Amino acid sequence: MDKWRGKVAIVTGASAGIGAAVVQALVHHGMVVVGLARRTEKIEEMSAALSKAGEKGKLVGIKTDLKKEGDILSAFQWVEKELGGPDVLVNNAGITYLGNFQDGVIEEWRAMLDVNILAVCICMREFLKSTTNRGKQNGHIINISSVAGHVPSHTFAVYSGTKFALTAISQSLRRELAQKGSTIKVTNVSPGLTWSETTTKNLGDAGMEMMAASDVAQAIVDVLSATAVTQVCEVVLTPVPTIEYIY
């Protein structure tokens, strides 16, 4: 991770769960991290705690509603102006609604499409614009997907669909960049059940084996630590033991 020390990372959905764990891991390794979230007070608390702990990097938060393109554009413009642009993008933010398809609520479907697909696409577009404008053709985009994007469930069909779409989008972008001779990497990280506010709300203490958010963050650190010629395209993580989402 030494190659990323002092470099800039943008992490969406940074205030809790996997996003917060990723932020802490990247700051630990000396990166300047910009956390995008609606609850920036939580990011400010994390920043103070990390600073007090003497961590090598730095964390700043920008209040961002990822359903609003204008908020995303403003955040990227701030990073460009104040920090010189991003080197790493971690698209972590996501929305999950469970339920039978025939009982689907359009507002919930639209929210998942807006955050799980469109916001990710906008962030990747702005990241690539920034690297192009700076004449820089290296960097890393990491999209947090889900095992639901590989093994769909009947209880969250539309959510699974957004994650399947993310896999296809990432694969297409990876090929587009390769054709341009770019060394920007694109990685999908697909965790299984992971402790977070979302899983607690939807599943409670259902007695299922779950990973910690720090387990996913460690996988991202491992991906970023790969050699310059190695592109990790897809990482699928599941808790052990489990038979629910074996890929």
Secondary structure elements and their pairing?
Blueprint: E1 8-12, H1 17-28, E2 32-37, H2 40-52, E3 58-63, H3 69-83, E4 88-91, H4 106-133, E5 138-144, H5 157-179, E6 183-191, H6 197-203, H7 213-224, E7 234-237
Parallel strand pairs: 1-2, 1-4, 2-3, 4-5, 5-6, 6-7
Helix pairs in contact: 1-7, 3-4, 4-5
Helix content: 40-55%
> How many whole angstroms does the radius of gyration measure?
17 Å
Which structural class matches the secondary elements?
alpha/beta
User: What spatial order of strands do you see in the largest sheet?
Assistant: 3-2-1-4-5-6-7
Low-confidence stretches: none
Give a structural overview:
- The protein is α/β, with parallel strands linked by helices and 247 residues long.
- Helix content is 45%, strand content 17%.
- The chain has 7 helices and 7 strands; from the N terminus they run E-H-E-H-E-H-E-H-E-H-E-H-H-E.
- The protein has helices at residues 17-28, 40-52, 69-83, 106-133, 157-179, 197-203, 213-224, and strands at 8-12, 32-37, 58-63, 88-91, 138-144, 183-191, 234-237.
- It has a 7-stranded parallel β-sheet, sandwiched between helices.
- Strand 2 (32-37), helix 2 and strand 3 (58-63) form a beta-alpha-beta unit.
- The protein is globular.
- The protein starts with 7 loop residues before the first strand and ends in a 10-residue tail after the last strand.
- The relative contact order is 0.14.
- The model has no long low-confidence stretch (mean pLDDT 92).
